[in-house]
């Protein structure tokens, strides 16, 4: 237990020993050290010397000795540390240094380079391995890829419509391909010539020349391809050359190249041969050689009949004027097969949800759209041929249509017979034969829903044009009931209500038509007019602006928009739209008058006069414009110029005394009193009871000192008394009970 010491015992100091320092580092005795104090006093504020000056003024470092702080007396204290003498000690080379130097720590110019990772022992890094040079084959492959990339860029630019860029890329590809051939020859690799690449470059270049209407260059490029026997089937490109000659109007050369191409196409490629024969027939039609054209089209109809060739054959027979052949060609057209499935497969035949979903998908897919397009083209070809030959194949127009209708009914396209019947009614309308048109359309009243709706719509419009509003409304309702999605029927019904001044109902019908077809231009326009008449100017403007977005620059629509802005008080917008309308119809006098009214209301009389004068120049019989122009010159104290306008108004309305009085007033204002007096006398002879004329005659005669002044005074009194009597009789008659007004 003697060796156990408890914490806090009085006879033991826990912190003993920490105050013991080396005598050289003990600063407690520095105040008593006279040598140190003398050194401080003499060197205060000075930097240590950069070099020792002697054994008595600096620290001399020698090997094996500790550094000494120099004093004035040459004595000092040696500084020691646990690591050796403080200050770094003397070096073996005997170099001297100041006390501020770092040489003692090893940082000298002669010391080793900084290498913490010991990289120097490994030697210098090896040099990078140089990439091996490409072989000629690799260079050629790289250039081929570049050429193919340029061809693809050219084709993509052409598909976007950037024809100039596509031509530039095609030319660049051609240049690169020629340099590729030279590199092959230099490398001795001519045997590996890529013929497909050369063909692609030349073919694309020729196509781009043709697309840019550089016909000569295109023909030369195609010639290079067709003359090179290394290219297989290059003779087919003569079709393209024939197309270019056709575009240039050189029809003989076009036929020559078509026939050369036909000779080089084997019989196994039947579709290609048919297309070339069709081109030959069309060129013969262009040349007016219809017999040769018929030969080509007949060959097509025998080998592989199609609707385009059939329509062209009927057209060629029509040009020849051969009625029997026209009938024969029409029958051949009806024999063409459409080769599409029936619509039954698109109708749901079971309650299976999966089947219904599949039908929803395929009902509007790309294949279905293609089938619709093919069907529409077939129907268009048949109906166009029927419309073409119906007026000429029989003695009368009606008989020709009846033959076509009967022939169609006996074919697989019997559904088109109804459309042709309706077209027959339209042809009657074009001939102003309303009676036969109505009779033809009435035949459809008891037929199937869609056809009956179409016929009733046309009947409604016919009766509307004949101002038979009740009949028009009756058939419009029939058309709507037969087909609830018939927007034209709703428009007709709205027109009937508009004509009957039932504007709210008309507005409802137009809105219903727009619910079915938002782009129905008739409904939009009529809705705008209806809202305008109802005073709903903002709604009317909205409808007409939508219509303007659909049908750009249609003058009636632009006028209605401008007039609505004028009614809304927005003269800036109104004038802008009127000016736009003047760009469409620059000679419309009414538009000039409207612009004149706008500038007149804004106080710009000079600009208003310009538009009023233009309106008068295009239509000199507008009394409002004449009145404004005459008043304008009177207001500007140029009364003599106003005379010609008021004289024209007096000629237009000879029984209106106002204009003749204005002429006389203009003479009086211009100082021509005698002419004014004569004019007033003429007016008095024609209108003896006119009080205004008598007053002016009396005043002017008095001013001129004429004797007739007293006579005019008496006549004026008589006229005034007669006017008073007429006014009193009129007043008493109106106040009498039961009087008729």
TrEMBL record:
Keywords: TPR repeat. Gene3D superfamilies: Tetratricopeptide repeat domain. Signal peptide: none annotated. GO terms for biological process: intraciliary transport; non-motile cilium assembly. SMART domains: TPR. GO terms for molecular function: kinesin binding. PROSITE patterns: TPR (PS50005), TPR_REGION (PS50293). Residues 40-67, 109-137, 720-741 are annotated as: Disordered. This is Intraflagellar transport protein 88 homolog. It comes from Meganyctiphanes norvegica (Northern krill). The lineage of its organism: Eukaryota, Metazoa, Ecdysozoa, Arthropoda, Crustacea.
């Amino acid at each position: 237990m003697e060796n156990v010491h408890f914490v806090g015992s009085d006879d033991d100091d826990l912190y003993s020993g920490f105050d013991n320092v080396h005598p050289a580092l003990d600063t407690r005795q520095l105040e008593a050290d006279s040598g140190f104090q003398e050194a401080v006093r003499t060197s205060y504020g000075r930097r240590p010397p950069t070099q020792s000056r002697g054994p008595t003024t600096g620290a001399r470092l020698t090997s094996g000795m500790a550094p000494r702080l120099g004093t004035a007396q040459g004595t000092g204290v040696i500084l020691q540390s646990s690591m050796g003498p403080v200050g770094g000690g003397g070096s073996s080379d005997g170099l001297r240094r100041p006390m501020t130097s770092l040489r003692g720590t090893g940082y000298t110019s002669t010391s080793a380079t900084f290498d913490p990772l010991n990289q120097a022992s490994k030697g210098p890094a090896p040099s990078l391995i140089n990439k091996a040079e490409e072989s000629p084959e690799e260079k050629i492959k790289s250039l081929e890829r570049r050429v193919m990339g340029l061809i693809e860029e050219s084709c993509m630019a052409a598909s976007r419509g950037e024809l100039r860029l596509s031509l530039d890329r095609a030319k660049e590809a051609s240049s690169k391909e020629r340099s590729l051939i030279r590199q092959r020859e230099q490398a001795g690799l001519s045997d590996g010539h890529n013929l497909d690449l050369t063909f692609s470059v030349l073919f694309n270049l020729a196509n781009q020349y043709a697309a840019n209407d550089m016909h000569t260059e295109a023909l030369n490029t195609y010639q290079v391809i067709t003359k090179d026997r290394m290219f297989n089937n290059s003779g087919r490109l003569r079709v393209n050359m024939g197309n270019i000659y056709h575009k240039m109007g050189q029809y003989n050369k076009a036929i020559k190249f078509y026939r050369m191409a036909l000779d080089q196409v084997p019989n196994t490629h039947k579709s290609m041969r048919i297309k070339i024969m069709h081109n030959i027939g069309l060129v013969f039609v262009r040349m007016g050689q219809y017999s040769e054209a018929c030969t080509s089209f007949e060959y097509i109809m025998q080998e592989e009949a199609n609707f385009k060739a059939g329509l062209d054959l009927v057209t060629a027979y029509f040009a020849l004027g051969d009625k029997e052949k026209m009938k024969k060609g029409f029958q051949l057209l009806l024999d063409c097969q459409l080769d599409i499935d029936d619509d039954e497969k698109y109708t749901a035949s079971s309650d299976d949800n999966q089947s219904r979903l599949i039908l929803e998908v395929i009902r509007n897919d790309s294949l279905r759209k293609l089938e619709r397009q093919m069907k529409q083209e077939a129907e268009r070809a048949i109906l166009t041929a029927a419309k073409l030959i119906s007026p000429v194949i029989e003695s009368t127009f009606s008989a020709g249509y009846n033959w076509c209708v009967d022939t169609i009914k006996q074919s697989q396209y019997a559904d088109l017979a109804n459309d042709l019947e309706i077209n027959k009614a339209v042809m009657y309308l074009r001939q102003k034969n309303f009676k036969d048109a109505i009779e033809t359309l009435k035949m459809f009243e008891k037929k199937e829903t869609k056809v009956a709706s179409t016929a009733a719509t046309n009947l409604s419009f016919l009766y509307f044009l004949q101002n038979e509003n009740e009949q028009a409304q009756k058939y419009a309702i029939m058309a709507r009931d037969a087909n609830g999605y018939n927007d034209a029927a709703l428009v007709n019904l709205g027109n009937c209500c508009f004509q009957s001044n039932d504007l709210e109902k008309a507005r409802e019908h137009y809105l219903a038509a727009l619910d079915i077809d938002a782009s129905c231009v008739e409904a939009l326009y009529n809705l705008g007019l209806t809202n305008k008449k109802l005073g709903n100017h903002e709604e009317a403007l909205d409808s007409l602006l939508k219509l303007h977005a659909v049908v750009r620059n249609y003058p009636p629509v632009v006028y209605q928009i401008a007039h609505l802005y004028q009614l809304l008080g927005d003269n800036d917008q109104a004038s802008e739209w009127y000016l736009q309308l003047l760009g469409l119809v620059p000679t419309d006098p009414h538009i000039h008058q409207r612009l004149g009214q706008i500038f007149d209301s804004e106080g710009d009389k000079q600009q208003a006069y310009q538009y009023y004068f233009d309106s008068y120049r295009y239509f000199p019989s507008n009394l409002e414009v004449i009145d404004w122009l005459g008043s304008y010159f009177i207001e500007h104290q140029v009364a003599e110029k106003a005379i010609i306008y008021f004289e024209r108004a007096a000629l237009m309305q000879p029984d209106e005394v106002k204009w003749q009085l204005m002429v006389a007033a203009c003479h009086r204002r211009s100082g021509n009193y005698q002419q004014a007096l004569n004019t007033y006398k003429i007016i008095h002879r024609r209108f003896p009871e006119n009080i205004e004329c008598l007053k002016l005659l009396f005043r002017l005669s008095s001013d001129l000192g004429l004797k007739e002044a007293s006579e005019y005074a008496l006549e004026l009194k008589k006229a005034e008394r007669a006017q008073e009597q007429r006014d009193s009789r009129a007043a008493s008659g109106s106040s009498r009970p039961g009087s008729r007004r």
